[in-house]
Design brief:
Strand order of the largest sheet of chain A: 2-1-3-5-4
Number of strands of chain B: 10
Number of strands of chain A: 5
Low-confidence stretches of chain B: 246-254
Radius of gyration of chain B: 19 Å
Order of helices and strands of chain B: EHHEHEHEEHHHEHEHEHEHEHHHH
Strand order of the largest sheet of chain B: 2-1-3-10-4
Mean pLDDT of chain A: 87
Oligomer: heterodimer
Largest sheet of chain A: 5 strands, mixed
Order of helices and strands of chain A: EHEHEHEHEHHH
Shape of chain A: elongated
Strand content of chain A: 5-15%
Helix content of chain B: 40-55%
Number of helices of chain A: 7
Low-confidence stretches of chain A: none
Distance between the termini of chain A: 61 Å
Chain lengths: ~190, ~270
């Protein structure tokens, strides 16, 4: 079974490839959707093509599937049109899969299941990374705002934080927002920090 | 409010949908309109065909192709609302355009003469010109084929058509991967501004009031939800009246304030390409 993964994101493709190799698929090729990727695909002649549903190059790929004379068998999207649940899960996860005609559903299903799981895991990972980055940036903002309060009002660190928190609660805003506003105001007023 | 999801591509002719949502026309019809951004026609089509959205901002020929079963999984689609007419332009590399009428307004005004000049240019060229189109089932591709036929050029034999996302056309032209492309705004202008391409023909001179994008529904859903669809179309129609149209522009009646208001809405990051 020859599988091609078309993907822009090096990391996501790697995550998917690793999963497939662990599951015992050895014939896997990574193809980024740039330049003459269609010609490359024709040379590889895959049984299954996995692609990010969000890639703008899907139209280019489908055109190639429609006109290619190099690919002996027609390739159609998804496995079995009757399997609505799986198609829904694939679209939700952002996976599109093209499969050569005649490949049995039970041979393709595990691959698609795996791709869906890996894509979901990858987007969870990205969300967590984003959240971690935001949390870190917010902590820095709050630290700077605390420093301003400590310096200009002579508060200790705990009181400075308590003041930010009470202000945020009274105004129904987030602490990071209040801290941001304080930093802006302080810099407008010619503060050092 | 009744929720409706519509898949769209971030192109200027999604303006009516965006205005219907952002300017309260949908809410006015008791519809909670959700717009689902897509990056390819294939993905937009899948979302409609597999029922993840109730309607889609679709290339008119693609809606017909899906119904006929020519584009992957077949599904009966209906398109009761037109979102745009025309708006496409054919751009060729400067090297290629050198063989055409150098008077640009005259070249544009007479697409039949331009097509004959183009046929001659193909003969002067040392290989088959490669022209980028946005999709096999697009008004762009159909218009190009129609125009080439003015001069007896066979689009399947005498040129190579390559499908590319419009956002990649200018780069592909610069890199020499294609010799020209047909796409909507602003790609032709960008290529001209960069000095790598010239306008060769424009949509309205090839095909007046050529249907560009439609709002497509699955026929079964549309028929089952007739009352809701009526409300949605009413909202879109009202939104369209507050959205600048090409006709208004052509007759010099464009409302500049409406133009700039909708431009400001479309400049929001979630609607941009």
């Amino acid at each position: 079974m020859r599988i091609v993964i078309i993907d822009d994101s090096g990391l996501r493709a790697t995550v998917l490839e690793e999963g497939l190799r662990e599951a015992g698929y050895a014939d896997i090729h990574l193809v980024p959707p740039h330049g003459a990727f269609v010609a490359k695909l024709e040379r590889i002649a895959p049984d299954v093509v996995l692609m990010d549903l969000g890639s703008p190059s899907r139209d280019t790929l489908e055109e190639m599937l429609a006109v290619s004379r190099a690919l002996a068998k027609p390739i159609a999207m998804f496995v079995d049109q009757s399997d609505e649940d799986m198609i829904g899960a694939a679209i939700d996860a952002g996976v599109s899969a093209y499969v050569v005609d005649g490949l049995r559903k039970d041979r393709v299903k595990p691959i698609l299941d795996l791709a869906i799981r890996r894509f979901n895991a990858f987007s969870r990972m990205q969300t967590e990374l984003e959240e971690a980055k935001t949390a870190l940036a917010e902590r820095r903002t709050i630290d700077r705002a605390k420093a301003i309060l400590i310096e200009s009002r002579g508060l200790n660190e705990a009181d400075a934080y308590a003041l930010l928190r009470t202000t945020a609660m009274n105004q129904g805003r987030r602490i990071a927002e209040v801290a941001e506003a304080l930093i802006t105001a302080s810099s407008l007023l010619g503060g050092k920090i | 409010m009744t929720p409706i999801s519509i898949a769209f591509l971030p192109l200027t002719d999604s303006a009516v949908l965006v205005a219907a949502r952002e300017k309260g026309f949908a809410a006015g019809q008791d519809i909670d309109l959700k717009l689902v951004r897509s990056t390819s026609w294939a993905t937009l089509r899948d979302r409609l065909v597999y029922g993840q959205v109730q309607a889609a901002h679709m290339l008119a020929p693609l809606a017909i192709a899906v119904t006929l079963g020519l584009s992957q999984h077949s599904a009966a689609l209906a398109a009761p609302f037109k979102l745009n007419v025309n708006g496409n332009a054919l751009t060729m590399s400067t090297a290629f355009a050198a063989a055409l009428d150098p008077d640009l307004p005259r070249r544009i005004a007479d697409p039949v003469a331009a097509a004959h000049d183009f046929a001659t240019a193909i003969g002067l060229h040392h290989r088959k010109p490669i022209i980028g189109v946005v999709h096999r089932f697009s008004s762009h591709a159909l218009m190009l084929r129609y125009w080439l036929a003015f001069a007896g050029v066979d689009p399947d034999r005498d040129v190579t058509l390559r499908v590319l996302p419009p956002s990649l056309m200018v780069e592909a032209l610069r890199a020499g991967e294609i010799d020209g492309f047909i796409a909507g705004a602003p790609w032709a202008s960008l290529a001209a501004a960069d000095g790598i391409g010239e306008l060769v023909a424009v949509g309205p001179r090839i095909w007046q009031r050529g249907v560009e994008k439609v709002l497509a529904f699955r026929t079964s859903w549309m028929e089952a939800e007739a009352e809701l669809v009526d409300r949605l179309l009413r909202a879109l129609s009202l939104a369209a009246q507050g959205t600048p149209s090409r006709i208004a522009t052509n007759s010099g009646r464009a409302d500049v304030s409406v133009n700039s208001r909708i431009a400001a809405v479309l400049a929001g990051s979630q609607w941009k390409s």
